[in-house]
Amino acid sequence: MPVRVRTALVFLATWLLAACSGRQSALDPQGLQSDQIRHTLFIFLIIAAIVWIAVMVVLGIGMLRRKRASNQPLDLDRRFEEGSGRLILGLGIATVIIVLGLSFVSYAGQRTVFAKDENALTLKIIGHQWWWEVHYEADSPHQSFVTANEIRIPTGQPVKVELESADVIHSFWVPSLTGKMDLITGQKNELQFTAKNAGIYRGQCAEFCGLQHAHMAFAVIALPPDEFGRWRDHENQSANSPADPLGKQGEDLFRGRGCALCHNIRGTLAGGQLGPDLTHVGNRTTVAAGTLPLSPATLGAWIADPQHIKPGNLMPRMPLQSDELIAIIHYLEQLK
Ligand code: HEC
Ligand SMILES: [Cu+2]
After folding, report:
1. How do residues 72-106 score in pLDDT, each as one tens digit?
2. Most CB atoms closer than 10 Å: which of 60, 69, 97, 259?
């Protein structure tokens, strides 16, 4: 094959396949449900492609083999008329069979996608403009806690998410694991999924919900069950008390500068409910619903001017001196 043709083919392939794998891809399924969705998609795609190609071929033949205009346009050719009648009937029946067949494929696929399992781990997720409130609900209240913007789950176990909204309609979508489901005010929707492999999968809001809709992402972190159990036991505990003076100063400032009006930090006097729970914020992977990766620098940038990073979001810019900012960052960082 000449080099130029090969280069062109490689270029075309990379271009076509560029988005087919990674942390957020329905074509690289990591869950039982997303596997089934891809399977159904490919069956539809193949059958639709065959039908489309057949229609194009027949259309092409029709265009190439046009009949001459006759002097008696109303004359009928009986044999031709009967033949095409049968052909149209046959194609009509084939269409009905294909549509019924695809409906059946779709129905069969839904049995996996919407399967309910009694032993599922239950999470309640509330969508807010523009972040995610996550409740782990256990039979014992001692095992129930709240976190935000990050969902850790065990591999191999079904997870049930109960979806609600605090304001407008949002949509919960983790393409690598399952399909979409809306979060609607005053209504409880449910979705179940099972992660096959450990990993970090990106999810995002898939229903336009206002100015910062594009910055309403979250991470689903699937862990081996024993590691998940350890994380859960740790997450269930109250926040660390800062050991050093700078951390203590940060804790005081967190209340003194009004952060505590909106944010909850379990085990401290901060009990606000308007913003994300920050009890273990130091363990998260991102800041502001997937907008930035978490580090002291991004945490500082966010607190110094949240309106610059995510214009219009519901955390106001709080006037802070730079030494106050440093103390607050230090305090939040050690909330592991
Ligand atoms: C009026 C309520 C309000 C006040 C006051 C407030 N916040 Fe927030 N905060 C929010 C909201 C709402 C969000 C979510 C913003 C988003 O991602 O859209 C947020 C997000 C955050 C986050 C990111 C959390 C995450 O999981 O991504 C941090 C950290 C944070 N705030 C710290 C602070 C600190 C420190 C202060 C005090 C200087 C403060 N906040 C004051 C409402 C508030
Ligand atoms: Cu949304």
Report:
1. 777 778 888 888 899 999 999 999 999 999 999 99
2. 259
